[in-house]
Design goal:
There is one protein chain. This protein is an alpha+beta fold. It contains 4 helices and 4 strands. The protein has a 4-stranded mixed β-sheet with strand order 1-2-4-3, sandwiched between helices. A hairpin with a 3-residue loop joins strand 1 and strand 2. The longest helix is centred in the last third of the chain and has 21 residues.
């Protein structure tokens, strides 16, 4: 028995995760971020036909149970909202508050902040590194 075609579009696929420390580092080094009451988002162009997200939840937020609950909440909000978000971005989501927002509050934040970080990235394209000349 196969899943209905519409269920596939809501699945949170493996290639949509940022997992490696180098991926997070590249996003942070681009230094483009936006924030609101609930969330800070760092962004970077990835050249892929989909967005990838990583979550960074500080120990200041609380116990491992609380941090994991926030991760699940933010992942679910992304999964449900990604059809309305720009594509081709790597995003690092950082919860701003210890208190837990509702799913709808996180979805609204994503719908406002992801396009804003995409505009910032478009306004300030990455600096192309100059090829170094070999020593003579």
């Amino acid at each position: 028995m196969s899943d209905p075609p519409q269920a596939e579009s809501f699945r949170f696929r493996r290639e949509e995760h940022l997992r490696r420390p180098e991926d997070f580092r590249r996003v942070y080094e681009r230094r483009r971020s936006v924030s609101d009451h609930w969330l800070i988002i760092y962004g970077l162009e990835n050249g892929l036909p989909h967005c990838r997200i990583g979550l960074s939840v500080s120990r200041k937020v609380g116990s491992a149970v609380q941090r994991n609950r926030l991760r699940r909440l933010y992942r679910e909000a992304f999964r449900l909202s990604r059809a309305q978000l720009p594509i081709g971005l790597d995003l690092v989501l950082i919860p701003r508050r210890c208190e837990e927002p509702t799913l709808e509050q996180v979805r609204q934040s994503l719908k406002q902040l992801v396009p804003a970080v995409a505009r910032k990235l478009a306004q300030h394209p990455p600096a192309l590194s100059q090829p170094q000349e070999p020593p003579t």
